[in-house]
Amino acid sequence: MSSSCCTPDGTCSTGAATSTTAVTVADTTVTAFRVSGMTCGHCESAVTRSVGALEAVASVAVDVANGLVTVTAIGEPDETAIASAVDDAGYELTGRA
């Protein structure tokens, strides 16, 4: 797992803005995952960008405070791909919520 931009006291060293993506699609599945290591808006943005880039992902909502990532996927979500995207962003998917 790569290192986070966040300092041990929970502050963010980048000050990056957060973002979300949304697409309305029929036959979607909404799944919440627990993700460890997120502490700030940059963390939210990094996970949103990485998971949102997956082909079957219609939208991503990140709740840093509760360590949750909610993914709306076209059909069933590819949990392995989502875990890999979270890992690529520098965090760890620890399971479904």
Give the key terms:
about 100 residues; 4 strands; alpha+beta; 4-stranded antiparallel sheet
Show the helix and strand layout.
Layout: E1 28-36, H1 41-52, E2 57-63, E3 68-74, H2 79-89, E4 92-96
Antiparallel strand pairs: 1-3, 1-4, 2-3
Number of strands: 4
- Overall structural class, as computed from helix and strand content, comes to alpha+beta
Amino-to-carboxy terminus distance: 21 Å
Number of helices: 2
Gross geometry: elongated
For the biggest β-sheet, the strand order reads 2-3-1-4
What's the gyration radius in Å?
Answer: 13 Å
Mean pLDDT: 84
How much of the sequence lies in strands comes to 25-35%
The largest pleated sheet is described as: 4 strands, antiparallel
Give the SSE order as H and E letters. Answer: EHEEHE
- Low-confidence segments, ≥5 residues, pLDDT <50? 15-25
* Share in helix: 10-25%
